[in-house]
Amino acid sequence: MIVAALPWISPGLLSPGLLLAAAVTAAAASLWLLLPRGAENRLARWLGLALGAVALAGLVATGRRLGGLGEDAVFLVVSLVAVISGAATVVSRSPVYAAIWFALALAGVAGVLLVLGAQFLGVATIVVYAGAILVMFLFVLMLAQPSGMAPYDRVSNEPLLSAVAGAVLLGLLSLFVGRLSAETPACCRVPSRGAALTTTSGQAAAPLPAADAAATTADPLAENHVARLGGELFGRHLLAVEAAGVLLLVALIGSIAIVSRHGDPSGELTAAGRSR
Amino acid sequence: MNPLALLQNALLVGAALFALGLVGILARRNLIVMFLSAELMLQGVSVSLVGWSRFHGDWGGHVLVIFVLTVAACEAAVALVLVLQAFARTGRLDAAAWQTLREDTLSRSVDRELPAVDIVPPVFPRLTPAGVLPAADEDDLLQREHV
Questions:
Q1: How far is A7 from chain B (nearest CA, A)?
Q2: What gap in Å lies between CA A87 and CA A51, rounded to an integer?
Q3: pLDDT tens digits for A33-54?
Q4: Which domain holds residue A109?
Q5: Rounded to a whole number, what is the largest CA-CA distance in chain A?
Q6: N or C: which terminus of chain B has fewer CB atoms within 10 Å of its end residue's CB?
Q7: Which tens digits make up the pLDDT trace of B89-106?
């Protein structure tokens, strides 16, 4: 029995499909055990944590097989931080703990973005999400959290089906990721920037001076990252920036209009809701 | 790491975050935790987009992630106001409190009885009093030179 199980344990002998299937199954079981299901069971929680570790090990092994994961220790660490804290966000009983785990997941995601060369986005994720959006969540929690552990925080809607759905989605996406290849098919080749410029303007664009050509290079890893990202954002995507500004204004006015109680009877309903 | 491996690993991380957020949205009943799960899905998409952007060496993914951030901020503002209003009306942050909005063909979800939990009140450390309380001078308290 043990000898028969050995090839399954040794990762070198396990086929990629089996490895992925084992990891996904362990992830589903772990999420099902860890999600709140009414009665708290310490054994189920420990078993869920152990299965979660097995699922993470399987995913890391899948990543190593695809190549590279583990060469870059920083990428491995920050992605593990992001995924583990994401899972903790989902399974936390208390919404305050969920928000704090989400902040840690954001830190992990910002690390992943930095490793991928997106310096501005890494910092913007920390500033905008952890600094503004998460604080807004915590404010709402302070305003709206009933005291003690609410019964709806201790149960889940269909925990088994949800965990299986998430794990199946993860497995399918991982299969797709494993089949990516380096060469682009001829149908989907993106024209180079210069070609796009000549075709859209109808005539050949004036040849750029050397300095400008260096400044508009499309490689995110070159120097002057933020300056070139700003140039791209406010040059090629200027109309979208304007639309985003209008969207922000609409959201601001809309949320004020929703929260102000003039002319509707929700004021008395508020008092009724609080006294209940 | 070669570019393809980096892209694949970034996509794996993005897929894991997206799947976790999906599980949270499907399973949890607290409205705020559901919104946190939606934000987790957005984070997974951001990681994937930046991975593709790195692979192709262009700015499309970066710009798209900036707009994702903008829309997420708008969505969080409007959604949290709605959550607050919902809490003011029902006194609960429960998604099932709004099940009167369901279709006629769906059956009503009924909560089963939960076993009671004993919530242990937190124990805070007691500070030992340091020294004696000095006697306050009444005149001094009433006539301060500066505040």
A1: 25
A2: 13
A3: 998 887 778 888 899 999 999 9
A4: 73-156
A5: 75
A6: C
A7: 888 888 888 888 888 888
Reported as a single tens digit per residue, the pLDDT across A131-149 is 888 888 888 888 887 666 7
Q: Is A32 domain-assigned? A: yes
Provide the number of structural domains found in chain B. Answer: 1
Its domain, for residue B59, covers 3-92
Contact A87, A31 (CB under 8 A): yes
**Residue B16, both tokens:** 């894991």
Range in A9-13, A178-182, B115-119 the model is least confident about: A9-13
In a shared domain, residues A92 and A151: yes
* Residue at A237 is within a domain: no
> Is the ipTM here above 0.85?
no
For B:16-75, CB contacts with A below 8 A are 16-24, 26-30, 32-33, 35-37, 39-40, 43, 46-47, 50-51, 53-54, 56-59, 62-63, 65-67, 69-75
Residue type present at position B86: A
Nearest residue in B to A178, CA atom? B8
Residue A228 structure tokens: 């070139």
Same-domain status, A67 and A77: no
Number of domains in chain A: 2
Q: Verify that A15 and A142 share a domain, yes or no.
A: no
CA distance B32 to A90: 11
